[in-house]
Specification:
The protein is an alpha/beta fold and 369 residues long. It has 2 domains: 191 residues, Glycogen Phosphorylase B (Rossmann fold), CATH 3.40.50.2000; 159 residues, Glycogen Phosphorylase B (Rossmann fold), CATH 3.40.50. The protein contains 15 helices and 13 strands.
Length: 369
């Protein structure tokens, strides 16, 4: 179990005791959007105002390491619940993540501690619909009997209410700190396009490579593409070679948060042509850096890019993706306009100062009774 930094105590009387919250999620150094979000939330005043302690039920690595992590987490959760925190906040996705968190939620209910379930899974509705009936019943019970359920957007709130009509669903978008406008390339320099995410079919990596082959031929302005993330690297390398894209595409592995920031500061466009998404942190981070975003019109992405903050294409539509990328590569004014609107939207809607206050309000509601 780990804790986030606590404020330095002031001189004089200690003051009223702060309420306590137990956060349960994947490890903070795990790859993916959930860990990025929880790290960010841990840097807000919420973590100190509620004396937050964090327990990781999962981490990257071998099967044995994952099993050991979960076993240790169950012991740590049991010990933490004996001290009766005021609220348990569980960050949950689908499949194995749901199974692990369902056990923790059961332990919290035995101790009569209110549970806030934060659903992050990009395919959570499909996970429910394809699951055997007993698992569907467990999902409905988990959502419906929780003190509160957090959805990432209105569309996801509707999907969760369809699964569990009794669930008390609140909408709290993901959050990211605004950074500033993107630096544009000097005359003659290529426009830098980046892809951040797991390399594979779901994120549209191979759709992107096929579209990029058209961009190289059709764009009037030179451009380069960086693809960064874990996943199907060998398949991506083969496809890059087959398409003859070696000179214009750089393939990188998973990047640490500080490396992601460096990459985004060097770019002007982020593309994420996914087939399924929740509310991807990669897009939010790109918006915070003032990048122009070209992405699929699925999941929570249209809500992120509402108010004309990016270009949306149908998933799997290679020609439409290539055309959208060419549009923002060739038209610097449009690229800058979309990036500026995206940055403004982060400041007004997705700033962490807005998000943590919404969550604190939920904590107060579920603990007031």
């Amino acid at each position: 179990m780990s804790s986030f930094p606590s404020p330095t105590p002031s001189a004089g009387s200690p003051g009223p005791e702060r309420p306590t919250a137990l956060w349960v999620s994947t490890a903070l150094d795990t790859r993916g959007g959930i860990s990025s979000y929880v790290r960010m939330l841990g840097q807000t005043p919420l973590a100190t105002r509620w004396s937050v302690r964090h327990i990781a039920t999962h981490r990257d690595g071998s099967a044995a390491r994952k099993i050991l992590t979960f076993a240790r987490a169950l012991g740590a959760c049991s010990a933490a619940l004996l001290r009766r925190p005021d609220v348990v906040h569980v960050h949950m996705a689908s499949y194995g993540s749901f199974a692990r968190k369902a056990v923790v939620i059961g332990l919290a209910r035995l101790r009569r501690v209110p549970v806030v379930v934060h659903v992050h899974g990009a395919e959570f509705d499909l996970f429910h619909d394809r699951a055997p009936r007993p698992v569907q019943a467990a999902i409905r019970s988990t959502l419906g009997n929780s003190a509160a359920v957090i959805a990432l957007g209105e569309q996801w709130a509707e999907r969760l209410k369809r699964i569990a009509p009794a669930a008390r669903v609140h909408v709290v978008p993901n959050a990211v700190a605004p950074v500033g406008p993107a630096a544009q390339p000097a005359p003659g320099e290529p426009v830098h396009v980046v892809f951040l995410g797991e390399l594979g079919e779901r994120k549209g990596t191979f759709t992107l490579l096929d579209a990029w082959a058209k961009v190289v031929l059709q764009a009037a302005v030179p451009a380069r593409l960086t693809i960064a993330g874990s996943g199907e690297h060998e398949r991506a390398r083969l496809r890059i070679t087959e398409l003859g894209l070696g000179d214009s595409v750089q393939l990188r592995g998973w990047l640490a948060p500080d490396e992601v920031a460096v990459l985004l500061r060097s770019a002007q466009v982020l593309t994420l042509p996914s087939f399924a998404e929740g509310q991807p942190m990669a897009i939010l981070e790109a918006m915070a850096h003032g990048l122009c975003v070209v992405a699929s019109n699925i999941g929570g992405i249209p809500e992120l890019l509402a108010e004309d903050c990016g270009l949306l294409v149908r998933p799997g539509d290679i020609d439409a993706l290539a055309a959208a990328l060419c549009e923002v590569i060739d038209d610097p004014a449009e690229r800058v306009r979309l990036g500026e609107r995206a940055l403004d939207r982060v400041r007004t809607t997705f700033d962490p100062a807005i998000g943590w206050r919404r969550i604190e309000q939920i904590y107060r509601e579920v603990t007031s009774g």
